[in-house]
Amino acid sequence: MSLYKIEINDFFTSAFSVDCVIFGYEDGEIKALLIQRGMEPFKHFWAIPGDLVYPNEDLPDAASRILHELTGLSDVEMHQSHTFGSPERHPQGRVITIAYFALIRITDFEIKASSWAEKAQWVSLNEIPALAFDHSTILSSTYELLKQKLTYEPICFELLPERFTLNELQQLYEYAFNTIMDKANFRKKIKPLHLTPLNERQKNVKHRPAKLFKFDQSEYLKSVQDDNYQFKM
Amino acid sequence: MSLYKIEINDFFTSAFSVDCVIFGYEDGEIKALLIQRGMEPFKHFWAIPGDLVYPNEDLPDAASRILHELTGLSDVEMHQSHTFGSPERHPQGRVITIAYFALIRITDFEIKASSWAEKAQWVSLNEIPALAFDHSTILSSTYELLKQKLTYEPICFELLPERFTLNELQQLYEYAFNTIMDKANFRKKIKPLHLTPLNERQKNVKHRPAKLFKFDQSEYLKSVQDDNYQFKM
DNA sequence: GCAAAAGTGTTTGGATTACACCCATGC
DNA sequence: GCATGGGTGTAATCCAAACACTTTTGC
Fold first, then answer.
1. Which end of chain B has fewer CB atoms surrounding its CB within 10 Å, N or C?
2. Does residue A79 sit in the same domain as residue A182?
3. Same domain, yes or no, for B51 and B132?
4. Contact predicate B210/B165, CB 8 Å
5. CB within 8 A of A189, min separation 6: which ones?
6. A13/B12 touch (CB, cutoff 8 Å), yes or no
7. Taking CB atoms and an 8 Å limit, are B3 and A86 in contact across chains?
8. Domain total in chain B
9. What is the dihedral of CA B37, B38, B40, B41, to 10 degrees?
10. Model pTM?
C-alpha cells in the first residue's frame, strides 16, 4: 500500500514554468519587457514572458532560452526570484512557476517576435496594466528583490549603457530608491568601486559635458576577494 | 500542431516537492532537524525533511504540514528559500523542490515519528553528514539566507526561548556571524527594539544572575509602521 | 556674460568603537 | 574575599549628511 492518499503517479501530473522578468532602464525609468499573449488562456493579456520547462531542461537554461527567443541575447546572468505555486494560479492545471529576472541594456538588441507573443514592449514600472495569471504579484515581488540586490551588489551596471556618466548612475539609484541624493556624497560613496574614467565626454548637451566612466567587473571581484570589500549603496 | 517539440501532456509528467529546513538553537549552536530516510531512494541517508506536494495543496501549506508531522507544531512562519530543479537531482524522475525554512524553539516540542522518517535528530551545522539528493546544497544555501535575514529582521527571537538574557541573544549573533561583539555596544545596538524587561532572573548560575527579557512583536511592528524603523544587526 | 550642470572641498553632528569601571552573586 | 560574568559610562574615532564653492561648456 502506498504511503500517500493518492497514487504515486498522480503526483506526476503537474507542469512547471519559468517566468522571466526582464528589466531595462531607459529615459530615467526602470522598465519591464512584457508580452501580449497570443494564445489562451489570457489571450491578448499582457504578461511576463515565460514558458513551460522541457522535461530535460534545467531551470536557469529555460530562463535564458526565454530571454534569447525574445531578445536574441545570450550569456546574460539570470537571478532566481521566488516560486509561485498556488493551486488556482493556472486555469488549465497545476502549474507552478519559478520566477527569474535578468537585467539588460535596452539599446543592445532588438525585440524579436516569439512563438507565444503577439507583441512585446517595454513598459515603465509606473504604468503596468493588469497582467495575466498572478503576474502582477510576480512582477512586484521580483522588483522588490531587484531593489534589494541593487543595495548590496553593483548590478546597476547591467542596466546602464557600458559608458555612463556619474549622474546617470546616481539617477538610476534615485529612481529605484525613490530618493534624492547629494551629488558630492554620492561620489564619495562609490569611490571604492574605482570606476574607470574614459577619455570621453558626453555629447550634445548644452552645458559642461560630463566625463564618461565604465565599470570594471574584474577589479571589483578582486577587491571583494582581496580586501573583503562589500558594496553597499 | 503544437508549438512545442513534445506533446503538451508530456509536460505534465513532473512532480514537485517541498523541503523544509527546520532550524533550532541549542547549547550555543544553530542546528537543523534532519531525518534518516526510511525508503528508497537514498534509504538510510540523512536528509532534510520534505515531501511531494499534493495536487491541490499550496506550497506553504505543504511546508507547514511537514513541520507539523515531525514536530506537532502549527502556526509557525514559513520562509521561502530557493528552488532546485536540476533534471538529474532526483533518480526517479523530474522532481523539482521548493525549499522553505522555519525557525523553532527546540524545547517547545517533542520530535514525532513520521511516515517517511526512520528517525529524526537535531544536528549541529558544524557536523552535517553527507545528505541525500542535493540536500547539502539546499541546506547550505538556505543557511546563508537565514544569516541574511538575521541581519535585517529580528527573527532571532523565533530561535531563542521566550525569556532570554541579553547575553544569550548576543551569543546567537556571535555564532551566526562568527564574530565577537562588545557587550556594551551590542546593548546599545538593540536599544531601539525595546525588549521588555521581566521581573525575573537567570537561575542556577554561579555568578550574578542576568535579567530576563522578552521580545514584543507588536511593539516592533508598530515602530516599523510609525517611525519607519529598520532593524539592522 | 549667463544659465546649467559638472565637479570638489569643508564643516558638523551622530553613530560606532574601544575600553574602563562598578555591581551582584555563589562559593 | 575572590572569581565570574552582569551591567553601564565615556572618550576617541569614523562616517555620512549638509552645504558651499569653483569649473567648464553652450548660447
1. N
2. no
3. yes
4. yes
5. A233
6. yes
7. no
8. 2
9. 0
10. 0.94
CA distance B172 to A158: 37
**CATH at residue B65:** 3.90.79.10
The set of strand C positions with any atom below 7 Å of a protein CB reads 3-10, 16-20, 23-27
Residues B29 and B82 in one domain: yes
> Do A56 and B87 count as a contact with CB atoms less than 8 A apart?
yes
Among residues B122, B78, B77, the alpha carbon closest in space to that of B100 is found at: B78
Nearest to B13 among A4, A55, A83 (CB): A55
pLDDT of residue B2: 43
| C-alpha to C-alpha distance for A60 and A76, rounded to whole angstroms | 11
The reply to whether residue A55 touches residue B86, judged by beta carbons under 8 angstroms, is: no
Domain of A165? 155-224
Note the pLDDT tens digit of each residue in B84-130.
999 999 988 889 999 999 999 999 888 876 666 778 999 999 999 99
Cell numbers 524545547 correspond to B107
- Contact list, A96 vs chain B (CB under 8 Å): 16, 59, 98
Handedness of CA A180, A186, A190, A196 (dihedral sign): positive
Has residue B79 been placed in a domain?
Answer: yes
> How many helices (DSSP H) and strands (DSSP E) are in chain A?
5, 9
Q: Which of B150, B171, B195 is the last residue of a domain?
A: B150
Both B136 and B203 in one domain: the answer is no
How many contacts (CB atoms, under 8 Å) link A and B? 86
Instruction: Tell whether A196 lies on the interface with B, counting CB pairs under 8 A.
Output: no
